[in-house]
Specification:
about 350 residues; alpha/beta; TIM Barrel; eight-stranded parallel β-barrel
Length: about 350
Protein backbone atom coordinates (compact mmCIF):
# COMPACT_ATOMS: atom_id res chain seq x y z
CA UNK A 1 0.00 0.00 0.00
CA UNK A 2 1.48 3.36 -0.95
CA UNK A 3 -1.14 5.81 0.34
CA UNK A 4 -2.06 6.37 3.97
CA UNK A 5 -2.82 9.37 6.13
CA UNK A 6 -1.30 7.77 9.24
CA UNK A 7 2.37 7.70 10.32
CA UNK A 8 4.31 4.62 9.21
CA UNK A 9 7.41 2.77 10.43
CA UNK A 10 9.54 0.17 8.68
CA UNK A 11 8.83 -3.45 9.54
CA UNK A 12 12.32 -4.71 10.31
CA UNK A 13 14.36 -4.80 7.11
CA UNK A 14 11.46 -5.85 4.86
CA UNK A 15 11.12 -2.52 3.07
CA UNK A 16 7.44 -2.39 4.08
CA UNK A 17 6.41 0.69 5.98
CA UNK A 18 3.37 -0.07 8.12
CA UNK A 19 0.99 1.97 10.24
CA UNK A 20 1.43 1.41 13.96
CA UNK A 21 -1.93 -0.32 14.13
CA UNK A 22 -3.02 -3.09 11.81
CA UNK A 23 -6.41 -4.70 11.35
CA UNK A 24 -6.77 -8.12 13.01
CA UNK A 25 -9.21 -10.46 11.24
CA UNK A 26 -9.38 -13.33 13.76
CA UNK A 27 -12.97 -12.70 14.85
CA UNK A 28 -14.13 -12.36 11.24
CA UNK A 29 -13.71 -16.10 10.81
CA UNK A 30 -17.08 -16.53 12.51
CA UNK A 31 -18.35 -19.43 14.64
CA UNK A 32 -18.21 -23.20 14.22
CA UNK A 33 -14.53 -23.76 14.90
CA UNK A 34 -12.48 -24.26 18.05
CA UNK A 35 -11.49 -20.62 18.63
CA UNK A 36 -14.38 -18.70 17.12
CA UNK A 37 -15.85 -15.51 18.57
CA UNK A 38 -19.50 -16.39 17.97
CA UNK A 39 -21.75 -15.29 15.14
CA UNK A 40 -20.37 -12.67 12.78
CA UNK A 41 -22.11 -11.11 9.79
CA UNK A 42 -19.92 -11.28 6.67
CA UNK A 43 -21.24 -8.04 5.20
CA UNK A 44 -20.42 -6.24 8.43
CA UNK A 45 -16.95 -7.83 8.42
CA UNK A 46 -16.29 -6.48 4.93
CA UNK A 47 -17.59 -3.04 5.90
CA UNK A 48 -15.32 -3.04 8.97
CA UNK A 49 -12.20 -3.90 6.96
CA UNK A 50 -12.99 -1.21 4.40
CA UNK A 51 -13.65 1.33 7.16
CA UNK A 52 -10.20 0.66 8.63
CA UNK A 53 -8.53 1.03 5.23
CA UNK A 54 -10.43 4.22 4.44
CA UNK A 55 -9.10 5.68 7.69
CA UNK A 56 -5.48 4.89 6.88
CA UNK A 57 -4.74 1.42 8.31
CA UNK A 58 -2.39 -0.14 5.77
CA UNK A 59 -2.04 -3.77 6.84
CA UNK A 60 -4.29 -6.70 7.71
CA UNK A 61 -3.33 -9.73 9.75
CA UNK A 62 -5.26 -12.96 9.28
CA UNK A 63 -4.53 -16.70 9.35
CA UNK A 64 -5.60 -19.80 7.47
CA UNK A 65 -7.09 -21.30 10.62
CA UNK A 66 -9.37 -18.34 11.42
CA UNK A 67 -12.78 -19.70 10.57
CA UNK A 68 -11.00 -22.60 8.81
CA UNK A 69 -10.21 -20.47 5.78
CA UNK A 70 -13.18 -18.14 6.04
CA UNK A 71 -11.32 -15.10 7.39
CA UNK A 72 -8.90 -15.15 4.45
CA UNK A 73 -11.86 -15.34 2.06
CA UNK A 74 -13.52 -12.36 3.74
CA UNK A 75 -10.29 -10.35 3.51
CA UNK A 76 -10.08 -11.15 -0.20
CA UNK A 77 -13.67 -10.05 -0.76
CA UNK A 78 -13.11 -6.79 1.12
CA UNK A 79 -10.08 -5.95 -1.02
CA UNK A 80 -11.39 -7.24 -4.35
CA UNK A 81 -12.21 -3.93 -6.02
CA UNK A 82 -9.57 -1.68 -4.44
CA UNK A 83 -7.05 0.09 -6.73
CA UNK A 84 -3.48 -1.13 -6.28
CA UNK A 85 -2.36 2.06 -4.50
CA UNK A 86 -5.11 1.63 -1.90
CA UNK A 87 -4.57 -2.05 -1.15
CA UNK A 88 -3.15 -2.78 2.30
CA UNK A 89 -0.40 -5.27 2.99
CA UNK A 90 -1.81 -8.70 3.83
CA UNK A 91 -0.13 -10.88 6.46
CA UNK A 92 -1.26 -14.43 7.12
CA UNK A 93 -0.15 -17.52 9.03
CA UNK A 94 0.06 -21.29 8.65
CA UNK A 95 1.13 -24.37 10.55
CA UNK A 96 -2.29 -25.24 12.03
CA UNK A 97 -4.12 -28.10 10.32
CA UNK A 98 -7.79 -28.80 10.94
CA UNK A 99 -10.10 -31.73 10.30
CA UNK A 100 -13.12 -30.61 8.26
CA UNK A 101 -15.17 -33.50 9.70
CA UNK A 102 -14.58 -32.18 13.25
CA UNK A 103 -14.30 -28.40 12.87
CA UNK A 104 -14.67 -27.68 16.59
CA UNK A 105 -11.67 -29.79 17.52
CA UNK A 106 -8.45 -27.82 18.15
CA UNK A 107 -6.22 -27.82 15.06
CA UNK A 108 -2.97 -29.78 14.97
CA UNK A 109 0.34 -27.91 14.95
CA UNK A 110 2.09 -29.18 11.82
CA UNK A 111 5.08 -27.57 10.09
CA UNK A 112 6.41 -30.31 7.80
CA UNK A 113 7.85 -28.67 4.66
CA UNK A 114 5.36 -30.23 2.22
CA UNK A 115 2.46 -29.31 4.51
CA UNK A 116 3.57 -25.67 4.74
CA UNK A 117 3.89 -25.45 0.98
CA UNK A 118 0.35 -26.74 0.54
CA UNK A 119 -0.87 -24.20 3.08
CA UNK A 120 0.83 -21.29 1.31
CA UNK A 121 -0.78 -22.30 -1.99
CA UNK A 122 -4.20 -22.61 -0.31
CA UNK A 123 -3.84 -19.19 1.34
CA UNK A 124 -2.80 -17.60 -1.95
CA UNK A 125 -5.91 -19.03 -3.56
CA UNK A 126 -8.28 -17.89 -0.79
CA UNK A 127 -6.70 -14.43 -0.63
CA UNK A 128 -6.66 -14.13 -4.45
CA UNK A 129 -3.04 -12.99 -4.34
CA UNK A 130 0.09 -13.85 -6.30
CA UNK A 131 2.35 -13.11 -3.34
CA UNK A 132 1.72 -12.92 0.41
CA UNK A 133 3.32 -9.87 2.01
CA UNK A 134 4.24 -11.61 5.27
CA UNK A 135 3.85 -15.34 5.93
CA UNK A 136 4.27 -16.62 9.49
CA UNK A 137 4.36 -19.96 11.29
CA UNK A 138 1.52 -19.64 13.78
CA UNK A 139 2.89 -21.82 16.63
CA UNK A 140 5.90 -24.04 17.22
CA UNK A 141 4.83 -27.40 15.75
CA UNK A 142 4.07 -30.59 17.63
CA UNK A 143 4.75 -32.95 14.71
CA UNK A 144 8.48 -33.24 15.38
CA UNK A 145 9.61 -30.93 12.57
CA UNK A 146 12.70 -29.05 13.81
CA UNK A 147 12.92 -25.27 13.55
CA UNK A 148 15.72 -25.53 11.00
CA UNK A 149 13.54 -27.55 8.61
CA UNK A 150 10.39 -25.47 8.64
CA UNK A 151 12.28 -22.21 8.65
CA UNK A 152 14.30 -23.34 5.63
CA UNK A 153 10.97 -23.92 3.86
CA UNK A 154 9.92 -20.31 4.52
CA UNK A 155 13.34 -19.03 3.44
CA UNK A 156 12.89 -20.95 0.18
CA UNK A 157 9.38 -19.58 -0.31
CA UNK A 158 10.71 -16.05 0.18
CA UNK A 159 13.44 -16.66 -2.39
CA UNK A 160 10.92 -18.14 -4.83
CA UNK A 161 8.71 -15.06 -4.55
CA UNK A 162 5.57 -16.69 -3.18
CA UNK A 163 5.98 -14.59 -0.04
CA UNK A 164 7.67 -11.23 0.40
CA UNK A 165 8.69 -11.58 4.02
CA UNK A 166 8.66 -14.38 6.60
CA UNK A 167 8.06 -14.51 10.32
CA UNK A 168 7.30 -16.55 13.40
CA UNK A 169 4.57 -16.26 16.02
CA UNK A 170 4.75 -17.41 19.64
CA UNK A 171 8.37 -18.56 19.36
CA UNK A 172 11.02 -18.27 22.08
CA UNK A 173 14.41 -16.54 21.75
CA UNK A 174 16.09 -19.96 21.52
CA UNK A 175 13.86 -20.90 18.61
CA UNK A 176 14.43 -17.51 16.99
CA UNK A 177 18.20 -18.06 17.25
CA UNK A 178 17.93 -21.39 15.44
CA UNK A 179 15.83 -19.84 12.70
CA UNK A 180 18.14 -16.85 12.31
CA UNK A 181 21.07 -19.22 11.70
CA UNK A 182 19.20 -20.50 8.62
CA UNK A 183 17.93 -17.16 7.29
CA UNK A 184 16.90 -13.78 8.62
CA UNK A 185 13.71 -13.64 10.67
CA UNK A 186 11.84 -10.68 9.18
CA UNK A 187 9.17 -10.44 11.88
CA UNK A 188 7.94 -11.90 15.13
CA UNK A 189 4.35 -11.88 16.34
CA UNK A 190 4.12 -12.33 20.13
CA UNK A 191 1.25 -11.53 22.49
CA UNK A 192 1.58 -8.27 24.41
CA UNK A 193 -0.86 -6.37 26.58
CA UNK A 194 -0.86 -4.72 29.99
CA UNK A 195 -2.11 -8.11 31.22
CA UNK A 196 0.11 -10.45 29.20
CA UNK A 197 3.55 -8.85 29.35
CA UNK A 198 6.14 -11.67 29.21
CA UNK A 199 7.28 -10.99 25.63
CA UNK A 200 8.65 -7.61 26.72
CA UNK A 201 11.26 -9.39 28.82
CA UNK A 202 12.93 -11.65 26.25
CA UNK A 203 11.43 -11.96 22.76
CA UNK A 204 11.08 -8.25 21.98
CA UNK A 205 14.63 -7.38 23.12
CA UNK A 206 15.93 -10.25 20.96
CA UNK A 207 14.17 -8.74 17.96
CA UNK A 208 15.63 -5.29 18.67
CA UNK A 209 19.10 -6.79 18.68
CA UNK A 210 18.60 -8.66 15.39
CA UNK A 211 16.73 -6.12 13.24
CA UNK A 212 13.52 -8.15 13.38
CA UNK A 213 10.19 -6.35 13.20
CA UNK A 214 7.64 -6.98 15.96
CA UNK A 215 3.88 -6.93 15.47
CA UNK A 216 2.20 -7.74 18.77
CA UNK A 217 -1.23 -9.34 19.04
CA UNK A 218 -4.08 -8.95 21.54
CA UNK A 219 -2.97 -5.56 22.94
CA UNK A 220 -6.53 -5.14 24.29
CA UNK A 221 -6.41 -8.69 25.71
CA UNK A 222 -9.27 -9.88 23.51
CA UNK A 223 -11.53 -7.07 24.69
CA UNK A 224 -10.78 -7.05 28.42
CA UNK A 225 -8.88 -3.77 28.15
CA UNK A 226 -11.43 -1.89 26.08
CA UNK A 227 -13.37 -0.53 29.04
CA UNK A 228 -16.54 -2.21 27.75
CA UNK A 229 -16.34 -5.47 29.69
CA UNK A 230 -17.98 -6.21 33.02
CA UNK A 231 -18.70 -9.27 35.11
CA UNK A 232 -22.23 -9.30 33.69
CA UNK A 233 -21.12 -9.13 30.07
CA UNK A 234 -18.56 -11.87 30.60
CA UNK A 235 -21.20 -14.20 32.04
CA UNK A 236 -23.31 -13.62 28.92
CA UNK A 237 -20.65 -14.63 26.41
CA UNK A 238 -22.11 -17.34 24.14
CA UNK A 239 -20.76 -20.87 24.38
CA UNK A 240 -19.29 -20.62 20.86
CA UNK A 241 -17.14 -17.63 21.88
CA UNK A 242 -13.75 -19.01 22.97
CA UNK A 243 -13.41 -16.28 25.59
CA UNK A 244 -16.22 -17.85 27.64
CA UNK A 245 -13.76 -20.62 28.56
CA UNK A 246 -10.53 -18.62 28.78
CA UNK A 247 -8.87 -18.27 32.18
CA UNK A 248 -8.41 -14.48 31.84
CA UNK A 249 -12.21 -14.12 31.63
CA UNK A 250 -12.91 -16.25 34.70
CA UNK A 251 -12.71 -16.02 38.49
CA UNK A 252 -10.10 -13.97 40.31
CA UNK A 253 -8.13 -13.27 37.14
CA UNK A 254 -11.13 -11.59 35.58
CA UNK A 255 -11.58 -9.42 38.67
CA UNK A 256 -7.96 -8.25 38.59
CA UNK A 257 -8.13 -7.60 34.86
CA UNK A 258 -11.26 -5.46 35.19
CA UNK A 259 -9.63 -3.42 37.97
CA UNK A 260 -6.72 -2.70 35.64
CA UNK A 261 -9.05 -1.76 32.78
CA UNK A 262 -10.87 0.70 35.05
CA UNK A 263 -7.54 2.27 36.00
CA UNK A 264 -6.99 3.25 32.36
CA UNK A 265 -10.12 5.42 32.32
CA UNK A 266 -8.59 8.59 33.84
CA UNK A 267 -5.76 8.50 31.28
CA UNK A 268 -8.24 8.00 28.46
CA UNK A 269 -10.32 10.93 29.73
CA UNK A 270 -7.27 13.24 29.91
CA UNK A 271 -6.16 12.23 26.42
CA UNK A 272 -9.72 12.38 25.05
CA UNK A 273 -9.48 8.88 23.61
CA UNK A 274 -11.02 5.52 24.47
CA UNK A 275 -9.69 3.06 27.05
CA UNK A 276 -8.99 0.74 24.11
CA UNK A 277 -6.71 3.33 22.50
CA UNK A 278 -4.75 3.72 25.73
CA UNK A 279 -4.33 -0.06 26.02
CA UNK A 280 -2.99 -0.30 22.46
CA UNK A 281 -0.72 2.74 22.90
CA UNK A 282 0.77 1.09 26.01
CA UNK A 283 1.81 -1.92 23.93
CA UNK A 284 3.24 0.36 21.23
CA UNK A 285 5.30 2.24 23.84
CA UNK A 286 7.69 -0.70 24.28
CA UNK A 287 11.02 -0.18 22.50
CA UNK A 288 11.27 -2.68 19.67
CA UNK A 289 7.55 -2.93 18.97
CA UNK A 290 6.82 -1.99 15.37
CA UNK A 291 3.04 -2.30 15.32
CA UNK A 292 0.02 -3.80 17.03
CA UNK A 293 -2.69 -6.03 15.61
CA UNK A 294 -6.08 -4.74 16.72
CA UNK A 295 -9.31 -6.58 16.03
CA UNK A 296 -12.72 -5.17 15.24
CA UNK A 297 -16.08 -6.68 14.34
CA UNK A 298 -17.90 -3.41 13.62
CA UNK A 299 -16.72 -0.11 12.09
CA UNK A 300 -17.38 1.72 15.37
CA UNK A 301 -14.79 -0.47 17.10
CA UNK A 302 -12.17 0.69 14.61
CA UNK A 303 -13.01 4.27 15.53
CA UNK A 304 -12.40 3.40 19.18
CA UNK A 305 -8.81 2.18 18.81
CA UNK A 306 -7.65 4.12 15.74
CA UNK A 307 -6.29 7.08 17.80
CA UNK A 308 -3.61 4.69 19.12
CA UNK A 309 -1.94 5.02 15.70
CA UNK A 310 -0.80 8.52 16.68
CA UNK A 311 -1.04 8.47 20.49
CA UNK A 312 2.21 8.71 22.46
CA UNK A 313 1.79 8.09 26.18
CA UNK A 314 3.84 10.28 28.49
CA UNK A 315 6.15 9.02 31.21
CA UNK A 316 3.52 10.10 33.74
CA UNK A 317 0.90 8.02 31.89
CA UNK A 318 3.19 4.99 31.85
CA UNK A 319 4.02 5.47 35.55
CA UNK A 320 0.30 5.53 36.32
CA UNK A 321 -0.33 2.34 34.35
CA UNK A 322 2.63 0.55 35.97
CA UNK A 323 1.26 1.49 39.41
CA UNK A 324 -2.18 0.21 38.41
CA UNK A 325 -0.69 -3.08 37.24
CA UNK A 326 1.05 -3.51 40.59
CA UNK A 327 -2.05 -2.51 42.52
CA UNK A 328 -4.40 -4.79 40.61
CA UNK A 329 -2.11 -7.81 40.53
CA UNK A 330 -3.16 -8.43 36.92
CA UNK A 331 -0.97 -10.52 34.65
CA UNK A 332 2.75 -11.16 34.68
CA UNK A 333 5.90 -9.63 33.25
CA UNK A 334 7.60 -6.22 33.22
CA UNK A 335 5.17 -3.37 33.71
CA UNK A 336 6.95 -0.24 32.45
CA UNK A 337 8.18 0.33 28.88
CA UNK A 338 10.87 2.69 30.17
CA UNK A 339 12.23 0.06 32.53
CA UNK A 340 11.03 1.80 35.69
CA UNK A 341 8.88 0.48 38.53
Amino acid sequence: MTVTTLPTVELGSTGMRITRVGFGAWALGGPDWAFGWGEQDDAESIATIRHAIEHGVNWIDTAAVYGLGHSEEIVAEALADLPSDERPYVFTKGGLIWDTSEPRQPPRRVAAPDSLRREVDASLQRLRMERIDLYQVHWPPEDGTPVDAYWQTLVDLRREGKVRAIGLCNHSPAQLERAEAVGHVDALQPPLSAIRRAAAEAEIPWCRDHGTGVIVYSPMQSGLLTGTFSLGRTRCLPADDWRAHDSEFLGSRLGRNLILADALRPIAARRRVSVAAVAVAWALAWPGVTGAIVGARHPSQVDGWLPAATLSLSKADLDEIAAAIARSGAGQGPAHPLGER
